[in-house]
Design a protein that fits this description.
The protein is α/β, with parallel strands linked by helices. It has 19 helices and twelve strands. The protein is about 40% helix and about 15% strand.
Length: about 425
Amino acid sequence: MCTLIETSNLTGWDANLPRSHCLNSQLIDENQTDVSNFLISVQNLLHKYKMYSKSQDSTVASGGLQQFITQKIRKSDTSFNLMKKLRALYGQSESTVPLPFDKADEPNLFGFLPVDLKLYIFSFLDAKSLCMACCVNQEWSQLTCDNLLWQHRLECDWKSWSTITHLTNPQMYIDVECEWSTKEIYLKCSPEFQRQLHQANSTFHQVSSVLKSFIPKKIPKVAMFGPGLEQSTSGLVRKMLYEDNEKFKRVAMFPGQFDGLGGGMTLKFCVGHSVHLSVLYSASKQERENRGDQNRLNQNKMLQGMGSMGADGKPEYELTPQLKDFCKTLDAFICVIDASETQETIENARPELEAMIREQKSTSQTPLLILSCIKDNSKHRLPASDIVSMLKLSAVSQPWMVIDCVTDTLDAVDTGMVWMVDQAQYK
């Protein structure tokens, strides 16, 4: 594999190379003509690509050079002496310490590369491969724990994570200047790593689940709201409550407690959890269809103006008195977001979200589940990390989760609701 890289070098290869490194006939026996020609070829290659030049825009075809050296070594009968000379040439050192050999008794050329080049090569590995490389030897362990290397890995992977919670939000650890290394933050926040950790402890979790099943549980009362219920992902309610599916089973309906407000349906999940679910719309169906998304906040019948401005200079809202009383009886919240919408549309959901959770002043343990939905897999979606930022969830004190979902298949909806029910038990 040939990889183009950038590295810092010394200008004037022949002028600055120590005398002991110059490849001339005095360093090579007459019987090693082939070796001499090979070393001269290597020197010409290094000179050609300015491997030790101070120029910042120079490039080196290190992968091709390494393949060239490897092929020559395999054909040479004097590979050990040749490698000693290459070590001096590559490392700019007069030392000719014997080279490490792998299981196939072939020289380890990777060990001769500069540190910055090794880190560049490691930057192409995924997190799992980096963790495996960490176990090779002491040098690789130090290199694969480099903070900049894991910062690059975090920046690349963070946008692809489908689930982020209040405990697995990398930005939180960065903002508080956590003492953890970047590798530790990555592994703490990575959904894939947490899933593997859960599987490794599957026996413990199975026993724990059996024991918990004997403890009487209160079925949590949950309200579902948000602009996603009135946009292209509005079919979520129909799929969950009115159509047969493999994830949720309809148990019974219950009436409202506050002049009809708060009624809903009891759902049982396939894993055994149950929930009393109420759906809150900002207006009647006809009003929602006629007003459009632009006027949703101003014509939201769940909200009323507080007459004050927030820190961002926008008007603040609160719930209507009737809805305030209802929210105080809730054990959890579900906010539905259409992840295929624009940033501005999603940010407009923040005042409604803040007004809903503001009423839970008596406890900071009421969980908040954000269903970041798209209608089907053909739709483009904003990543979960962007939803966290747009809704300013880092400032929310209670437990929260953002999870990517698909409305038509209910994919991952049950996973998020199981997390919510588990969190509600600690309320």
